[in-house]
Amino acid sequence: xxxxxxxxxxxxxxxxxxQGIVLKKQVGAVRAVxxxxxxxxxxxxxxxxxxxxxxxxxxxxVLMNLEKATSGQVLFKGEDITRLSGAGLKAVRRNIxxxxxxxxxxxxxxxxxxxxxxxxxxxxPEVAPKGDRRRAVQDLLxxxxxxxxxINRYPHQFSGGxxxxxxxxxxxxxxxxxxxxxxPVSALDVSVQAQVIxxxxxxxxEFRLSYMFIAHDxxxxxxxxDRVGVMYLGKMVxxxxxxxxxxxxxxxxxxxxxxxxxxxxxxxxEHRERILLSGDIPSPANPPSGCRFRTRCWKAEERxxxxxPLLAVPSTLRGPAAHESACHFAEVRDVIGSG
Amino acid sequence: xxxxxxxxxxxxxxxxxxGSGPAAGGPAAATAKGSGAPxxxxxxVASLWTDAWTDLRRSxxxxxxxxxxxxxxxxxxxxQLFTDGDPRAGGFCNLADSLKxxxxxxxxxxxxxxxxxxxxxxxxxxxxxxxxxxxxxLVVLVGxxxxxxxxxxxxxxxxxxxxxxxxxxxxxxxxxxxxxxSTWGEGNAWTVSAVMAVLGWPQIYRLMRSAVLANKHxxxxxxxxxxxxxxxxxVGRHILPNAVAPVIVVSTINLGVYIGAEAALSYLGIGIxxxxxxxxxxxxxxxxxxxxxxxxxxxxxxxxxxxxxxxIMLGDAVRDALDPKLR
Lengths: 339, 327
Hints:
The complex is a heterodimer of chains A (339) and B (327). Chain A is of the alpha/beta class. Chain A is 30% helix and 22% strand. Chain B is elongated, with a radius of gyration of 26 Å. Chain B has a single domain (48-85, 117-326), classed as MetI-like fold (Orthogonal Bundle).
């Protein structure tokens, strides 16, 4: 395996809960991200899935250094970026960029498209010399499939899909090596989603980008990802290649998640089993002891409440299906019938 | 991405898009307003501000209000354009003319002192406009910058400042103005403006602070931070331009309110003092003989009302034009 471009080790992000107005006393913490580790190689796409509130977006923000990590390391090309600030941080930002979820709020309504896409060049003047900037912006518009003549238009003159393309062009401007996509298509129409996903894939081939692709749409993640990580309540519960996760899921949560994917074939739909979870996702401020999923898991036993399952390859798994899963009773169960 | 050859691949790789790009590019509304064809998007610059301006030019509220305001400003700068008389000159008033009714040569008649009311009303515009403009400028500068600061940094600074403004909010503008003016006296346009600015800034502070708070967590601000933008750039280019619209609207409306408040203070005898000319003073002087000589009171009162109304109309029109919900 190639050298990882991004390595995340035991990353933790807790938001303190305080009481009192003047003398703030910490009474607890929301454990948004609680010990997440994974790595990403150049040119690879890692999909992160999980339901709302499981810490996906917080993970993205901590990776971008928009939120300071409580503990743990984020190694970008071997350098820990969680402790960086000032010029060092600014330099790293050139290499890690982000595409946002909502194209309606991620573009400043008072700036022209040219200003929005050109802003990275103003912040990092060394990337493009002053005279070339307009041309560089037009090239970027062209790359993302927009008419370069639109440079003087304002965001409200574009559709959602076009706006997302502008957001992608802004992310590409500094020629980053890693782009973190935080639900980049969930605010778009299905027909437009496909266009944006295709664009992202094509840009990846062109510029050898690495993606971290956060989404809750399992079919899109399957389509774009090389590897997939499943998060539940701030922890990574299962991680493996796209094939391993979708065809050989071993963690009960992953199985439940996959069984919720709509199947377009009515006959297949009748024959497949649906795993329905009971209850709600517990509060991240007060997560269950041991395995976090045990409160909703049909396999839960005494051991699950006392012993935290580690993210490791279970000994029962052999061959190509062997991948990391954080469950004491991990076993393959094909839930989407893809064989 | 700077290699031009790549662009051809882009077009070919996503066939559905290359067609829809230019076609769906200009929303119908935008191109309909523009002079050129949809492809001429490069030359047409339509910001929210220019769109607002396009709307404003068609709004009768704005046209009437704007015309009246412009007229009042011209009156304030050059009253000589509209009247030959100079109320400051000796011999301007003639007691023999006291309380004479309006006539062909003296449209508004004469007041108790035998001074021409038309000329005095024209000259009185200057103090009102000065008070309105100066107060508004001070209020926007002080309230706006404090609000921007507090909204941006939050925390203890914001809490303390916000409690301070709440204390100011407990004092009504007119009552507080009376209190301060009657203590310090020395009423002229500048002191009245200063006092009203002291009492008026919390409103703009609050408005600016809430607008900054509403904007600072937007994704485009996060995106700018992710690009490595510093505080100056984020505040100057992303937050302020998006937060300033409500401040402009309320300031325009308030300008009329300040003019009215100045007249009220002068009417009560603690604002602008004689021999300076102010509509409020003229109304005050006229009230005792209102039943005998109503014209002495009615003309300055009417002009005052029209001026206040003009600014409020202007503010309303600007609010309608800048309100994104109406687009």
